[in-house]
Design brief:
Layout lengths: L21 H21 L5 H22 L17 H24 L11 H4 L4 H22 L3 H12 L2 H12 L6 H31 L5 H30 L8
Helix pairs in contact: 1-2, 1-3, 2-3, 2-6, 2-7, 3-5, 3-6, 5-9, 7-8, 8-9
C-alpha cells in the first residue's frame, strides 16, 4: 500500500512557507546566527561588536523598509487590530523575532550594555539601569512578536510600529562606526549623531505617543498587547531622556577641552 500523501499545507499554506510555525521561528534565529558567523569569518581581526553592528544595521534596514510599507494598507492598520496577519507581516515578525533572540543571547555572552553601544558612553547617558534597559527592550520585543505571530491577527499594527521604530537604527550604527574610526570630531559624525537623536525623538516619542494613544483608545486590542506597548514606550523615554542629557551637556554646555 502506498503511503498517504504528505499534507504540505501544514508547512506551506497556499504554496508559501508558514512563518507562523515554531520551526520557522527557530530557523530565523539560526539564520541570523549563521549570518553573524559569516561576518566574523570575513572580518576575523575586528571586535565581535563590529560584526554585531553590521547585523543590527541589516535588520534595521530590512525591518524599516518592509514594516513601514505595512502602514500604508487599504486602511490605517491601527484602526483594525482584528485584521488577520498577512503573509508578509508574518515574515517580518518572524525575521525580527530571530534577530532579537540572537542579539539578546549575544549581549548575555559579551556583556554589552545594549546593541546601540551605550556601554562606552554609559557615564554620559546615565540612564536608569543602563545595563538592563536594552535587555528589557529585547525581551519585550520577543514576547510581543511571539504573541502576535501565534494569535494570527494585529500583524498590521505590529509591523507598522516595528518598521517605524527601526528607522533610527541605520543612523545609530553609522554613528558607532564613525566613532570607532576616530571621526567623532568631524562634521559628518556630528550631523549623523544629531540626526539620530532627532529621528529617535520624532519617531519614538512624538509618533510613538500618537500610536500609543490609538492603542489605548482602541477597545479591540488585547490587554497584553497594550501592556507590551506601554513597556516599549516607557523604555523609549528612558533612552530619549539620556539622549537629551547628552545633547545638553555636549552641544549646549560644551567646553573646548571637553572630549565627545
Amino acid at each position: 500500500m502506498d503511503p498517504p500523501p504528505i499534507n504540505y499545507n501544514v508547512y506551506f499554506p497556499n504554496g508559501y512557507i508558514n512563518y507562523e510555525s515554531p520551526i520557522c521561528m527557530v530557523i530565523s534565529a539560526v539564520l541570523w546566527r549563521s549570518f553573524y558567523i559569516l561576518i566574523r569569518f570575513f572580518f576575523p581581526h575586528v571586535a565581535p561588536e563590529f560584526s554585531s553592528r553590521i547585523l543590527s544595521a541589516t535588520h534595521g534596514l530590512l525591518s524599516a523598509f518592509l514594516g513601514i510599507n505595512q502602514c500604508f494598507l487599504f486602511d490605517w492598520p491601527f484602526d483594525h487590530p482584528e485584521w488577520k496577519t498577512s503573509y508578509i507581516q508574518s515574515f517580518i515578525m518572524t525575521m525580527s523575532f530571530g534577530y532579537f533572540v540572537h542579539d539578546g543571547l549575544w549581549m548575555l555572552k559579551y556583556d554589552r550594555k545594549g546593541p546601540i553601544g551605550f556601554q562606552r558612553i554609559q557615564k554620559i547617558f546615565k540612564c536608569l539601569f543602563p545595563d538592563k534597559t536594552m535587555m528589557c527592550h529585547h525581551l519585550l520585543c520577543i514576547l510581543g512578536l511571539t504573541k502576535i505571530i501565534f494569535k494570527g491577527y494585529s500583524g498590521g499594527q505590529a509591523t507598522c510600529a516595528l518598521g517605524s521604530m527601526e528607522i533610527t537604527n541605520p543612523f545609530l550604527q553609522g554613528r558607532w562606526f564613525l566613532r570607532t574610526a576616530g571621526m567623532q570630531n568631524t562634521p559628518v559624525y556630528k550631523s549623523t549623531e544629531l540626526t539620530f537623536f532627532l529621528v529617535f525623538i520624532v519617531v519614538r516619542i512624538v509618533i510613538g505617543s500618537y500610536f500609543l494613544n490609538i492603542i489605548l483608545r482602541q477597545s479591540k486590542n488585547d490587554w497584553d498587547f497594550i501592556i507590551m506597548s506601554l513597556g516599549i514606550y516607557i523604555l523609549s523615554w528612558l533612552f530619549a531622556w539620556g539622549m537629551l542629557k547628552y545633547v545638553w551637556k555636549h552641544y549646549v554646555q560644551s567646553r573646548p577641552d571637553e572630549k565627545t
